[in-house]
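Propose amino acids for all 591 sites.
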């Protein structure tokens, strides 16, 4: 393209679209409170009054937010900047472009959060540079509707009045504010938000920065009849790290009340000589957290809609201007696995985090810088916190407490087991039997397969002739069974003569441990099957249970099919067999 043919063009800004996009970038309606608090503190307010109410004089009961502060007020320059976009008159930078001072505001976007409403009203008194007072009343109608309709930035109107020597102040009234739910502005919810995610919840006091220490907010949210005074600074529980004292008071629940603090200022970041970090790290037990934070759910207390859990809120937060970013920006994996990070109430602050326009994310921050920040935090945690004498003592005592807990649990389990078994002992059936030429023996009714084996073994020892087989070996690998040889004509310790004896609490319709092919006998305590019932082995073969009466014995037999040249399988039902053969009857101990 020839130089002589070039036409110069200048990009323009679609102002209405830019304003609307900035306004809609603020997605949490409570961010209006965050921005108002930052503005008030930036201009040296010592008292901020925030009142939220529903206007009952209107049919729609619209939400109204009123923010008053005793700061320096709005001069003409600051008043115009209040309405403008990207206009931040308090911002100061050094000759290299680095931000100076402690003011939060720098983008000139914050007051645009106010625009999601029907009407904005502003009143302020300030002193101009020439010493004169300037009293202004301003108003903007239908800001959000004007932007939605498009092609126009909403106008504002104002009138100037004499200050008459009155104290400086600023009051902003936002009428018909658009919200997701009134719950966002419930007093308890709003108080919690202020103390966690605004400049008033700053961690700076923990780092010895106390310029805002004496400042207060008088808050009255929805559902509250009077204002509540909030003190400046993020709320941490008091340090309580004397383990011996905690153990004396709380025994083995002491970790729930343990609190310790580590704080580090101006920690250098490798590769960034002009950048640094501030870290505030609290390790807190859950009970200590709950004593400090009324919004946490509690065992035995029905949770309200606005309550949250420890895992929802605690962990490691990133911060800018000492203001924690939302929970979605936690970086818990920098210091711990999930099983640990809920113990931590911690913050890492860098003035070099680049935030999105709504201050909701560090997503604009250079990735390499973030990597170096992470490495710095990980190293600090490993070498200065976890390696500290206090943390090591805490972990060692935790291990000992767990060991004691395991012992206590075992003792408690044993106590419970004794009580349970005592109950069964009282109801257990037993019998007295006196074998020939021997003293009486107490026999216990079996409740499990192993007890059936025990009863059988006792009776086999006392009366070797009672059963028609001899036991050679026991096994518990597949249920409980024994290897036996039958008495003549099958006798003799020959491999081909070996058979199984199955022990069961009760005879059922299925055998899951052996086939009928090499089963010589079944020994059980009782049989609830009727005569003619079908019994199946694990190979799917069936036999019929035959129950017959002889002179002094009820005979239970699993009959072999007529087409199968195999012996029948005898079932010894001990409950009947011992009574009929030896007159042994089992009765309860209490009888």
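Proposal:
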């Amino acid at each position: 393209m020839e130089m002589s043919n070039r036409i110069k063009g200048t990009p323009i800004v679609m102002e209405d679209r830019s304003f609307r996009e900035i306004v809609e970038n603020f997605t949490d309606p409570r961010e209006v409170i965050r921005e108002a608090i930052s503005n008030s503190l930036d201009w040296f307010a010592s008292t901020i009054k925030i009142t939220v109410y529903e206007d009952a004089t209107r049919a729609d009961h619209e939400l109204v937010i009123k923010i008053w502060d005793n700061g320096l007020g709005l001069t003409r320059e600051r008043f115009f900047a209040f309405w403008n976009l990207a206009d931040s008159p308090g911002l100061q930078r050094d000759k290299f472009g680095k931000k100076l001072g402690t003011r939060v505001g720098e983008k000139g976007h914050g007051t645009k959060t106010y625009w999601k409403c029907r009407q904005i009203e502003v009143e302020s008194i300030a002193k101009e540079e020439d010493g004169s007072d300037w009293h202004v009343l301003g108003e903007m109608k239908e800001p959000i509707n004007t932007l939605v309709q498009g092609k126009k930035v909403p106008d504002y109107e104002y009138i100037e009045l004499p200050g008459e020597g009155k104290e400086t102040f600023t009051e902003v009234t936002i009428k018909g504010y658009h919200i997701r739910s009134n719950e966002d502005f419930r007093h308890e919810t709003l108080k919690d938000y202020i103390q966690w995610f605004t400049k008033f919840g700053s961690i700076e006091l923990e780092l010895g920065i106390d310029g805002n220490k004496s400042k207060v907010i008088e808050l009255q949210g929805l559902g509250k009849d009077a204002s509540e005074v909030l003190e400046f600074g993020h709320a941490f529980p008091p340090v309580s790290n004397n383990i011996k004292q905690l153990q004396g008071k709380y025994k083995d629940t002491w970790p729930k009340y343990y609190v310790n603090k580590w704080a580090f200022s101006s920690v250098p970041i490798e590769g960034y000589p002009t950048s640094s970090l501030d870290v505030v790290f609290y390790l807190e037990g859950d009970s200590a957290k709950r004593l400090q934070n009324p919004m946490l759910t509690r065992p035995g207390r029905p949770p309200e809609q606005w309550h949250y859990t420890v895992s929802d809120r605690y962990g490691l937060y990133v911060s800018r201007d000492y203001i924690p970013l939302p929970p979605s920006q936690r970086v818990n994996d920098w210091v711990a696995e999930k099983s640990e990070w809920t113990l931590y109430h911690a913050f890492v602050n860098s003035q070099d985090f680049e935030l999105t326009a709504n201050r909701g994310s560090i997503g604009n921050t250079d990735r390499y810088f973030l990597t170096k920040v992470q490495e710095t935090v990980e190293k600090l945690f490993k070498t200065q916190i976890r390696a500290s004498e206090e943390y090591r003592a805490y972990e060692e005592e935790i291990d000992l407490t767990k060991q004691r807990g395991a012992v206590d649990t075992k003792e408690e389990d044993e106590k419970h087991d004794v009580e349970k078994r005592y109950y069964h002992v009282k109801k257990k059936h037993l019998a007295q039997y006196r074998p020939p030429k021997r003293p009486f023996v107490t026999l216990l009714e079996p409740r499990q397969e192993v007890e059936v084996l025990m009863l059988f073994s006792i009776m086999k020892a006392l009366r070797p002739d009672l059963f028609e087989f001899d036991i050679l070996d026991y096994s518990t690998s597949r249920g409980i069974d024994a290897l036996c040889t039958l008495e003549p004509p099958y006798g003799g310790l020959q491999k081909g003569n070996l058979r199984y004896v199955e022990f069961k609490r009760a005879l059922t319709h299925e055998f899951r441990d052996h086939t009928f092919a090499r089963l010589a006998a079944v020994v059980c305590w009782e049989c609830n099957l009727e005569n003619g019932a079908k019994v199946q082995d694990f190979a799917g073969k069936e036999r019929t249970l035959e129950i017959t009466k002889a002179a002094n014995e009820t005979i239970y037999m699993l009959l072999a099919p007529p087409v199968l040249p195999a012996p029948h399988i005898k079932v010894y039902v001990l409950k009947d067999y011992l009574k009929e053969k030896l007159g042994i009857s089992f009765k309860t101990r209490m009888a």
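The longest strand covers residues 272-284. Residues 432-588 form one domain.
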